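Quick one, T. Sequence first:
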Amino acid sequence: MEIKKINTEKLLNINGTHRPLSFVDFIGQEHIKNVLKTAIESGQKRKSHVGHILFSGPSGFGKTTMANIIAKQSNVGIKAVTGYAITKPAEIISILNSLEQGDILFIDEIHRLKPNIEEVLYIAMEDFVIDMVMPEWGNVRIPINPFTLIGATTKSESLSQPIKNRFVYNFHFMEYDSKEKQIIIEKYLRQYAVDFDPSILSAIAAKVDAVPREIHNLCIKMRDFAITQTQHKRIDQACFDAFLLHSKIEEGGMTPLHAKYLEILRDADRPLGIRTIAVQLWINEKAVEEDVEPLLLKLNKIEKTAAGRIII
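Structure tokens:
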């Protein structure tokens, strides 16, 4: 049976320059970092791999970044791929065969793996073997190098129980508080060499969702605005107010799309179903549920009821 090697050039780029490169640089998630430090130290003393790790939580919270930090701190190689990119058992077998002793295999969106690929993976996770069907000899178990699987998912409920049970560590990324948001904002503004008034950090934090990726994106937008729209290229309160007006950003990071959603509910003055709202927003229902409603629910602007969505 021919096993084709996966082209590693197509693997995820996890070395973006804005990403933290150590636990010290990674803001927040203190419990996760503390447990991981212990696991890494144990692995180094045992001269063995770290137990398999599952990261769950919303997109943009740093799951990929944390996986890269673990590899760096453990001084091992890391290969990364997205769950939907693996379409056949032969592909995951090829990846597993390419791993060196103690390497990390990072699978983003692991919940998108097909059941037959999950089966190959959870046997490899537990016994570090691959079950293969050979025409001449029937089923053959081939040993592979011990490795650490790090899975990242926004939908942990979609993972099968057999693969869930094989993760030694299961972490859920928690919400960032205002102080942590301000630290992240300051870090990115300094990284992009943006001059700013420190007193406005709390005001900036109040206008962005508590998601590191969203905070990073906001800092890029503020940098671009300050460079092109202000005389002194400095973000102070006046500059920030002008930026908010220019970008149409409201409380908590709400955009015109969120504002339109609330306007639809106010004008209806009754509960509305998701399909009705989606039609009026000119986007599909999934986009409403995944891209618009989470922030509104977090900010206590709306409530989902049996009768439909209502404004609070």
